[in-house]
Specification:
With 336 residues, this protein is of the alpha/beta class. The protein has a domain at 6-177 and 228-257: Rossmann fold (3-Layer(aba) Sandwich). The protein has ten helices and 14 strands.
C-alpha cells in the first residue's frame, strides 16, 4: 500500500475483531475501532496506533461523525450478538442488533460513499447440514434467530450491492479457536460457551467439570464433530477478502472458512490433556436439541478465490495457543 488505507472495524474489541485489528495494524492499515464494550474488552486493543471509539451501530449521529471525519475505505463488521440459546429466548435483541443496527451502518456507508464491507457471517446460516463437508452451495436454512439474523443481513448486502454498488464479502466460518501467538490477546467471553476454553478451565480447576452432551451420535467415538479454525487464520482471511475486492471486479463474495477437518468433543478433550498434562473432569449428559452430529467446512472455494487455506490444522497447536493465553498471570489481562 502506497498510502495507508483507513479501515473501520466495528466490534473490534471482541475476540475475532481484536485479532483482526492487530493484524490490520501490523500490515500497515490505519484502523478505527467502534465497539460498545458490551462483550468486547478495551484491553484487547493492544496497538497504540489504533483509534478506539466507544459507541453503538444504531447511533446514526455518531456514524455520520466517524465517516465525516475520516476517509474510510472499508468496514469490517464483527459487532454481532452470538449466543445461539439467547437468540431463541430473546430474538428481538438479535434482530435489533445483528440486523437493524447493521442496516443503519450500511446506510451510513452508502451516504458517505464507503465502498467495501467485509462481513463476519457464520456457518449457522446453513442450519442442520444435509451433507458434509459443507460448501457454499449448501442450502441456507438457519434453525435459530442468531443464524437467521446473519442470513438476513447477507441478503440485505446482496440488495445493497445491486442498488448502490456496495462491494462485500460474507465470510461464513465454523468454530473460531485459539489465541495470538504471544498470548497478548485471546478468547474471553462472559458467559463462555465455547468448548475449548471450557475444557481448559475444567483442566485448570477453574470450573468443576465439563459436560459432554451426547455420546451416541453417528460419529466414530459417539461425540459431536466440529471444525476448529484458528483465530489468526480467520483474521488473515478477512484481509485477503478485502484485497480481493480492492484488486478485482468481484462485487459480492460468499466464502466458507474452515480447516476441512473435524475434531470430536472427545478428541478435543484428549488433546487438551496431552497439551496441558492435566486431567479434564467430565460429566456425561444427554444430547442438546439442535446439535448436529458433524459440522465441517469445505474450504476449497476460499483457496480458489482469495488464495486462503488454514495454516493451523493440528488441534494440538491450536490448543497450545489457547492454553498459553489462559495460563498466564492474570495481571494486565482482561478477565471474565
Amino acid at each position: 500500500m502506497s498510502e495507508k488505507e483507513k479501515i473501520l472495524v466495528v466490534g473490534g474489541a471482541g475476540y475475532i475483531g481484536s485479532h483482526t485489528v492487530r493484524m490490520l495494524s501490523d500490515q500497515g492499515y490505519e484502523v478505527i475501532v467502534l465497539d460498545n464494550l458490551i462483550y468486547g474488552h478495551r484491553d484487547a486493543i493492544v496497538d497504540e496506533g489504533v483509534l478506539f471509539i466507544e459507541g453503538n451501530l444504531g447511533d446514526s449521529t455518531l456514524l455520520d461523525q466517524i465517516f465525516g471525519e475520516h476517509s474510510i475505505s472499508a468496514v469490517f463488521h464483527f459487532a454481532a450478538f452470538a449466543y445461539v440459546g439467547e437468540s431463541v429466548t430473546e430474538p428481538s435483541k438479535y434482530y435489533q442488533n445483528n440486523l437493524c443496527a447493521s442496516i443503519n451502518l450500511l446506510d451510513a456507508m452508502v451516504k458517505h460513499k464507503c465502498p467495501t464491507f467485509i462481513f463476519s457471517s457464520t456457518c449457522a446460516t446453513y442450519g442442520n447440514p444435509e451433507y458434509v463437508p459443507i460448501d457454499e452451495k449448501h442450502p441456507q436454512n438457519p434453525i435459530n434467530p442468531y443464524g437467521a439474523s446473519k442470513l438476513m443481513l447477507e441478503r440485505v448486502l446482496d440488495d445493497y450491492s445491486h442498488a448502490y454498488g456496495l462491494k462485500h464479502c460474507c465470510l461464513r466460518y465454523f468454530n473460531a479457536s485459539g489465541a495470538s501467538l504471544d498470548a497478548k490477546i485471546g478468547e474471553d467471553h462472559n458467559p463462555e460457551t465455547h468448548l475449548i476454553p471450557l475444557v481448559l478451565d475444567a483442566a485448570m480447576g477453574k470450573r468443576e467439570n465439563i459436560t459432554v452432551f451426547g455420546t451416541d451420535y453417528d460419529t466414530p467415538d459417539g461425540t459431536c464433530i466440529r471444525d476448529y479454525i484458528h483465530i489468526l487464520d480467520l483474521a488473515r482471511a478477512h484481509i485477503l477478502a478485502l484485497e480481493k475486492l480492492n484488486n478485482s471486479d468481484e462485487q459480492a463474495l460468499k466464502i466458507n472458512l474452515g480447516t476441512g477437518k473435524g475434531k470430536s468433543v472427545k478428541e478435543v478433550i484428549d488433546a487438551t490433556e496431552a497439551v496441558t498434562g492435566l486431567k479434564v473432569p467430565l460429566v456425561y449428559g444427554e444430547r442438546r436439541a439442535g446439535d448436529p452430529p458433524e459440522l465441517v467446512a469445505n474450504a476449497a472455494y476460499a483457496k480458489e478465490i482469495i488464495g486462503w487455506e488454514a495454516e493451523f490444522t493440528d488441534i494440538h497447536e491450536i490448543l497450545k495457543t489457547a492454553y498459553a493465553w489462559v495460563n498466564q498471570d492474570h495481571q494486565g489481562k482482561y478477565t471474565k
